[in-house]
Amino acid sequence: MGGFCHIFKQSRFAFLYSRSDGLDLRVAVYYSRSMINVAGGVEFCEIPMLSDAGAEDLARGVHSLRAHWIPRAGALPFFTLGAAAYLDGPLGGEVYRHRREAGNGVLQGNFAELYSELSHILSETLGMPVEWHPAAALPGFHIYQMHRAFYGRGGSIHLDLQYDHVNWGIVGDPDFGSVISFTLPVVLPAAGGGLRWWEGIDPDVWTAVSKPERQRMIREAPLHYLPYRVGTLVVHSGQIVHQIAPGQMLESNEERVTLQGHGIRVGDRVVCYW
Length: 274
Known about the structure:
About 30% of the residues lie in helices and about 30% in strands. The protein is of the alpha+beta class. The protein has a single domain (about 15-274), classed as Jelly Rolls, CATH 2.60.120. Strands 1, 2, 3, 4, 5, 6, 7, 10, 12 and 13 form a ten-stranded mixed beta sheet that branches. A hairpin with a 2-residue loop joins strand 3 and strand 4 (about 75-80).
């Protein structure tokens, strides 16, 4: 079965493209519901996944597990629900292992239906089976709450290279040129939220140069913005230089909650993690 997204041109995820008449009904339905945003030769596949009511229910579920949120920025109100390789991996394998074992139990125990639907949608989108990495964290939640320190500031400018902190030997031979990242917005501030990314920056060059050279590349590259919509899953290659768009939370009760994850092609399947 083929997926309905086009090729992510900055990765070798060539199997993403198929629009043959042989698509089954379920894929055809997803295709009719999806949008493909294209700018600068980079494509973002957007798939409606949650209704407004479903997103509100999920947000309540995340808040009900407040005791399991992990503070990520000292006294600032940035948390994750679940382990994250990019945050916990650099602290050492045991830290990531402990947090992902604890977090996976909480996440699977409370959101099993969500993960089932997510894996199905990703599988239909990509055109091959999707599974969760058995020794890595499940996709988890970013939670940003109102604080003046976040106003007008974006996240770190980066490529998604979290796979460096994950053990791939137990799942097969990964193709590090065929990767995806995905985000499901659950709660957004009234002013919105989204992804900023820079066009035309070679990921191999980015990883090889100094910080001043990266800053020069950012100044000179065309800048794009992809607005998020609550309940709509966004899938892209992750191999574009990008950041969480600067926040504009103004009210004391506003927040930004997103489900985050990544995947790598391993043989004839995609193995996902966070």
